[in-house]
Structure prediction request, 459 residues.
Amino acid sequence: MKINFLSKSEEFSAEKLSAVLTEHEVVTNFDNVGNEDILIVDISLLENLQDHFDYFKKLAKNLVFVSTSNDFNIKFAFEILSKSSPPYHIVGLNTPECLEKVSELVGCIVNRSTLSLQEMLGETLKGVEVQIQDSSKISETIKGALGQLEFENCFSQIKDTLSQLINELLYNALFNAPTDEKGDQQFLEQDRKDHVSLDQNKAATLQIYNTEDKILTSVVDHYGSITKEVIDSHISRNEVSDKAGGAGIGLSLIYNNSHELIFVVEPGVQTEVISVINKYKRYKQNMKHVRSFHFFIKE
Amino acid sequence: MPSVKQKSLEIDINPVDGGNEFCLRGEINEDLIIDELVGFKSDLVKVNFEEVSMINSCGVREWIKLMEALANQGCKVQYFNCPQIVVQQVNMVTGFVPNQGEVVTFYAPYFCEDCDNEEKVLLTSSELKGRTAPELKCGSCGSESEIDAMEDVYLNFIPE
Ligand SMILES: [Zn+2]
Prediction:
C-alpha cells in the first residue's frame, strides 16, 4: 500500500509512521496528492492546503485526518469531510496513542474491515445484551444494563458517562433511525415527551462489553438510515435546535464521551454505532486519550 | 416550602434572600415542564444541582428554554453545587448558563497519587485564579491531591 502522509510535525512524521507500518510505503509528498491508496492529512496544515481541497473531496479511496495538536479543530475537519466519499476517519489529540491508532486504522483499511464489535472482541467475551423497542423503557433499560456491570480500574464517574452516552444512542435508534416504506423518517419531528414503540422485529439492540482495558458499547438499529451529512452537521454542534423532535446535540454528546466512535451503515438494513472508552483510573487520562471517528458504508 | 413533582425531576422551591432557590432532585430530560417553574417570579433564582443524577440532550434544551424564560422576566440566575455531568454541559452547550447567569460553585474530581484516593471537591469559581485549580490535602492520607481533569477544558467556563 502506498500511503501519503501530509505532515510537517517532527514527532508525527512519515518516518515515524513508516517505522510502525514496515510493510507499507509511507511517504510525504505534497506535490503528488491523489496517487496514493491512503491519504493521511495533518489537520493543522489544512489552512495551508486550500489547493488540495478538491482532491480531498473527490478522493473515493481512503482519507484519514489526524491532528497533532491539542486544539483539535474537529468542526473544520468535518466541514471538509462532508464532501468526501466514505470511508473516512478522523484521529485527534497529540498523544502517544495517536500513531498507534493510525497504524491500526491502516491495517483495517488494508483488510477492508469495518472495526466491528466482533473483530474487536473476538468471540470469547460475554457482555450484556438487551433488545429495546419502546422509548418509555430507555431509562430503566440503561439502569438494568449498567447495574449488571462493575467497572474496576476506571474513574468513578464512568457510570454517569455511560448512562448519558447510551441514553443518546438509544434515543437516536428509536426516534431518528425509523423510516417508513418511502424511506422518510417516521418520528423525526415527534415530541420526545410522547413515546414511540417499534415492531418487535425492528427493536434496537444494546450491547455493553467490559474488558480488561476497554468498555465497548454498541447500539444496532434495523433501518440503516443515518447519512454522512447528518453526522457531519451534528457531531460538533453545541447549540440546541428549536425544531420539533430531538435537541440536535445528542451526537455531539456521544462523540465527546467516546474515545472511538464508529458508524457502520448498511443502507436500508441496519446501522451499528460503536463507542469505545479506554479504561483509566484517572479522569484526566480519559480526557487526554486520543479521539477518533470512523464512518463505514457496508454494501 | 412549595415543591414541584414532575415525572423525572422534583424541584423544591425555597425563598432565599433576594429571590428563590430551586433544589433539583432527579433527571433533567424531555419530561421537564418549564411552565410550572416560570411562574415563580423573582429577581434571582439560585439553582442547586447537587442531586441531579442525569441530564440528556432533550433535557438540556428544556433547561435552556427555562433559563431564557427567566431571563425575559429580568431574573438573574446562579448555579450551585454543579456535579461533573452539569459542568460538561456548562462547557459544551451555548446558552446552558444564560448571559446574566453564573456558576458559583461546582464539583471537580481530585486524585491523590499517594493513596489513589478519588474525591469530588466543591470549588468556588470566584476563588480560583483563572483556570487553575488549587492543590488540596487528600481527605484520606493528607498528602497533596490535585485536580483530576485537564484544567483548560474542565475549567473552560471560568473567565480567564
Ligand atoms: Zn491520599
